[in-house]
Amino acid sequence: MKKTLALGLAGLAISAAMLGFGFYSGQRPAVAAAPESEMATSGGQRAQIEEVVRDYLLANPELMVEVQAALEAKQEEKQRVAQQTTISTQKDQIFSGENDGWGGNPQGNVTLVEFFDYNCGYCKRAFPDMQALVKDDPNVRVVYKEFPILGPDSQKAHVVSTAFRTLMPEKWSEFHLALMGASRATEESAMRIALSLGADEAALRKEMENPKIVAGFEATYDLANKLAITGTPSYVVGKEVVFGALGKAVLEEKVALARGCGSETC
Known about the structure:
Order of helices and strands: HHHHEEHEHHHHHEEH
Number of helices: 11
Oligomer: single chain
Number of domains: 2
Shape: elongated
């Protein structure tokens, strides 16, 4: 990254220097071919300029840090604007998707959306923070986006979860709590939990074949891509996307900021 930036800056510096020497000043007619001796001179001057620029950059490497910081800040701002646009234009899918689980107060004045994977260790670590947040703030609504990205076991476990929620939505919170606490989420472990909560196995397996389940995952993948979400847990609250298991205090801060905007989605 730094090498690329250095080369880019060197190129800009060379171009600027060449402008100073009149290479692009229009002093020579475009239709006239330069004599070989002049071309050789130009080549020699270019080599001298390149050497000067190289020496300057080596003597002032802090310029590379400044350029990198400026580039990263520009890219982050561009990403933030794109995220806000997606949140505004697809708020129904983000905050009220028909394939999502939910927790907290369904009538809460702030919605916290979590993209999670049942086999994500950071999601498991963050789950108590989510529980504590909901307990301490009765006006928070939580949306759980099933986002299986950690392999076939995760995919199958989330299929069971989605099918179970369709058949027994009133018990999905219990299912979710149990599977988040499992050492490894698989179809078998998810099925055991579902059956222990009273699910009919035949009906559950039939629902697991519903093509809407995979279609729902694909819609979530597409949404995550638009929001620049590549890992779990990731959250959407207000008009902000928050990455990582950052703890209850950070989530509370984001909820407070969203609430201060005066509407569920800021």
